[in-house]
Specification:
With 134 residues, the protein is mostly helical. It is 48% helix and 0% strand.
């Protein structure tokens, strides 16, 4: 049912575009824009509704009805587009561990990185001088 309405909606959209583009414009002449036309109405002469005008009106009404119907059917499905994405992302990627701040915020100075002595070397790695005691 839903797929049938989608297909019908696409056909009505294409038909509406075609009918609107095939219509002849009202007052398309330059003279009509400056009052050169023999019209007494403020928006141009009002003639009888042509077949193209009736087709446009009918396809527009059908377009609006299909829009409302599809939106109601979509809302009744109760599925969210992002619901599947959130579930997959939580299952596949582990949560990152919170970073522990170091330094003045914790009251401790960060420990200097100790370098192991190179193999075959009799010298030890240089050490940082100890802070003075008070």
């Amino acid at each position: 049912m839903y797929t049938l309405l989608i297909i019908l909606f696409i056909v009505v959209c294409l038909f509406l575009i075609m009918v609107v583009l095939l219509q002849q414009g009202k007052g398309a002449d330059v003279a009509a824009a400056f009052g050169g036309a023999s019209s007494q109405a403020s928006f141009g002469p009002r003639g009888t509704a042509t077949l193209m005008h009736k087709l446009t009106t009918g396809s527009f009404v059908l377009f609006v009805a299909l829009c409302i119907g599809l939106s109601v059917l979509t809302a009744r499905r109760g599925r969210s587009v992002t619901a599947g994405i959130k579930g997959k992302a939580a299952a596949t990627s582990p949560a990152p561990a919170p970073a522990k701040p170091a330094g003045p915020a914790t009251g401790q100075a960060p420990a200097p990185a100790a370098q192991p002595p190179a193999q075959g070397s009799s010298q030890s790695a240089p050490q940082a001088p100890a802070p003075p005691k008070k």
